[in-house]
Structure formats: C-alpha cells, structure tokens
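so im writing up the methods section and need the MFS transporter record in one place, dumping it here so i stop losing it
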Amino acid sequence: MHQNQSAPLNMLAMAATTWIYALSVVLISVSPIMAGLYVDHLNLSVSEVGWILAIEQGGCVLGALFAFWATSRVQWKSLIILASLVAILSNALTGSMTGFTTLAVTRFVAGTAANTITLVASCLLARTNQPDRAFGAGLLLSCFINGVWVWLLNVSRHTLGYEATIGSGALLFAVSIALGFFLPRHIGGRLDTWRLDAQIAREPTASIWPARAGIAGLVLFGISLSIVWGFLERLGSENGLSANDVDWALGIGLLGSGLGALLPAFLGDAGSRVRMLVITTLILFASLGLTWCSHGVVMFTVSVSLLAGAWNMGLAYYMAQTSSNDASGRYTRAIYIAIAASQSIGPGLSAILLGHFSLMSVLIVSPLPAFIALLLVALVERRVARSALLREAARAQHSVW
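--- predicted struct ---
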C-alpha cells in the first residue's frame, strides 16, 4: 500500500535533505541541557521551565501547521531558506532574554521556524520507496550531530558563558541555509503534486486507516517521550550526578542512541512493522525503569541511549507507517504537526504533574501513551489484514461461480 511521490530527489539533494532534517531536530534533543541552563542562570522554577518547553513546542505546532499549508503553495527550497533565517535570528536572541515572558516568546518563534524546516525535510525524505530506511538515515545522522552538539555546549558553557551557549543554535540553521541551495527549485509548490501509486489507484478498497493510525501513534508515542525527556537533567541531579556528569552522559548517550536509528536505516520494517514497534515499546519501558535507578554516570548514560534509541526507532516506524499508507500525501505532510503536538502536550502534562507530585510521577505516567499507540496500530493492521482476506475469499468464491 505504499505510494511513490512525483519529482524524486537526486542523490545530492537527498544528502542535503538528510543533513537539513538532522540539524533541524538537534535543539529538541538537547532540551534537557537548555532546561538546566534556564533553571540555573535565570532563577526559573522547574515548573516554569516546563511551560517554556511546552510553549516552544506550541511554536513547533504552529510551524508544522504553517508548513502543511505552505508546502502545496510555495517551493520547498524557498521555505527552508526563509525559515532558517528566522531560526537564526530567534536562536541568536534567546541568549539575551532574561525574563519568563520574553524567553517564552523567543522560543515560540524559534520552535515555529525550526519545525517548518523539519516538516518540509520530512516530506522530502518520504519521497522514497523505503521510508523506514530514509527516516532512519536522517535520525542516525541526527544522533551523531546531537552527541557532538552536547559536547560543544558543555565546552561553550565553561568558556564562552551562558549567553553564547544558549544562542549557539543559530549556527545550526546557518548550515541549513547553505544546504538549502542544493535543493532543486521544482520541488514543492503548486506545480508539484503527490500522485497515486498505480497499485492503490487500481485498488479502490485500500484503507486509509493504517495512515491515520500512524499519525495517532506518533502523537501518543511522542507524548510518552516528551513527558520525561525535558527533565532528564533534573532526574540525573536527583540521583546525585553533577551537571558535568549529566552533560557527558547525555552526549555519549545520544551518540549511543544511533543504534536505535540503525535498525530502521538498515533493516527497514524487517517484514513486520508491528513487530518492530513491539520491540521499540519494550525498549522504551526498559529505559524508563533504568533512568529512575541510575545512580552512576555509566548507568545513566545507558538509560539515555536506550531512551533516545527508542525514540529514533518509534519515530522512524510510525512515520513510515503513515507515509507508506498515504496515497495523497496529506497525512505525510501532517507528520510533524502530530510530533509537534505531542512534544507540546508532553511538557505541559509534566508541568501539571510536577505542580502536585514528585519527579517520579513523570516516569509512572509516561509509558501509558506508548502502549496505547502500539495497541492502536496493531489492531488497525489486524483489521485491515482480515478485511483483505475476506475480500480475497469473496473474489475467489465469485470466480468459482
């Protein structure tokens, strides 16, 4: 039930797209470090920082909605370059913001610009016959960049200070602008349309519910991760780790999480995407338990690797579940609306929980949405498969008569 899209990318454009995608998601991955810097240098409470993260993700939702509208009207090359300019300015200004309101507004704009880039890049990556591998490759590259970026942030914090460290995200989007010039002009806009795959066009009974289940799964799985991710630095501190220990654990852990992206990048769906989602969900559950028990740097590093690795796997497989069952491209273009919504809801739920309970509460609640996401996709796939068998049996009976 996979669709091919019009105007496929050449190898140079695909490589540039993979880098743009990877760069655009770095600041979300390092949000635990940013959260710690906000708390330590701006005297904000943990709950207030939770709302800052939620507001930034609210900007991501707006960016995804804007990109959903703009991708059918504006050339994607122009969208990426213009959004990168806004992201450079907003991230550069973040370091000079000292109050809750100004910081929230700046991060809202930064989130809007960043997720505009991410959504356009994800639509480009979806233009392949093996979306599991395409998304996996983008996530694998992001793991490497994340690890390097965490190390650079740690160095910058000790040598250049808070303002330069917080504003350094502008450099990521400067690179995105340069890479954007390698994209062809004909991609996106009114003259570029998604076309139905011949198999789907011949099969009017093909169900759109697997794509819808993929979108719903993205939201639920993303909520599970984002409930806890922004507070990893605080969890490490609660377990007796220093800020420097947490930084190194996050950096090495994010590099190690590349193993989670390797599976979809090289194995694809391995013959059963639902089976791979089961494995992903089990890894997530194990990582959450290990995070709470991590009283040493090594164990905390392993827990971060597993948690981020589960995110890479889940993201690749739920995005592929959506795009490979989406003939029109509408749900594929909505992928990062779903992800941004989940990453806004998650910190908001955390802020509510932390307003009444301890940090333990986020670890107790976070597994539930991921379990529901897995159950939803599995049930939809089972129902679609059963319907297909019934149709085949009806056809066979009809041919006999």
